[in-house]
Design goal:
This protein folds into 2 domains: 31 residues; 243 residues, MetI-like (MetI-like fold). It is built from 14 helices and no strands. Helix 3 packs across helix 14, helix 4 packs parallel to helix 9 and helix 11 runs antiparallel to helix 14. The chain is globular, with a radius of gyration of 25 Å. The termini are close together. The N terminus is likely disordered.
Length: 303
Amino acid sequence: MTNASNPQATLSAASREGRGRAISLPGAALISVAVIYVALFLFMPLLVVFTQALGRGWSAYFSTFKDPEVLAAVRLTLLTALIAVPLNLVFGICAAWAIAKFEFPGRSILITLIELPVAISPVISGLVFVLIFGLHGWFGPWLVKHGWSVIFAVPGIVLATIFITFPYVARELIPLMQAQGREEEEAAVLLGANGWQVFRRVTLPNIRWGLLYGVILCNARAMGEFGAVSVVSGHIRGMTMTLPLEIETLYNEYNHVAAFAAASLLTILALLTLGVKALVERAERRALESSLEGAFAARGEAA
């Protein structure tokens, strides 16, 4: 069988030809610019963070994480992410399902509202929550009367983080679900499957990589959010300070080693997030290649 009649062989040959092709001078120049840019704006800051964090040795580095206020900031950061990410996961799936699978009045408005936190400044988002739940806000007096605190308390931090991060899962799933169409779900319904069975056996396997990718991005933003949380937190040490806020406070107090040590923890979490993201992308690419190879093999057998 010739390559012309074997699409899989043609694809493999084209891939080998592309890998073996020499890099042109403009291509080499672009690659050099990209490498220099990454070195200046990514690797050098990372190097500075860890160099400063370890400037006084490992004992000073680890002593930072024995500080009760730093530990409280770490706990609050993890708690906020543990609340915000699952809620945004549920919202993202529901919103993507509704937008991609159904036509309804207000669909374009819902898409615009999902994009809203990306379009406005996080500081403005925090101020909006202050105007709504603050002492002189719309619901502030009622909340104070019933002994509830939102602004300058943990609930305000959680609400601000949820608002800032809720587009990430939905933005990953909406185009994916729209590209997949509704044919498989409709076929499952015709075969007698109910809504939960359609989601669990048809929709979820098709969106699993995009869903995981969106959760990773949402979690990274939740742990690193600064602007909106800074407005609603009140900067109460040991109570309403997340790790990014604690880093700023330590740095302003000229406690540079502790500030960079805490920053290194966020950096490690970010690098782990990037590693998981790379693994997800690789697994998704391998799954796509396997499906293409299976399709080519089936086509070759049919021919």
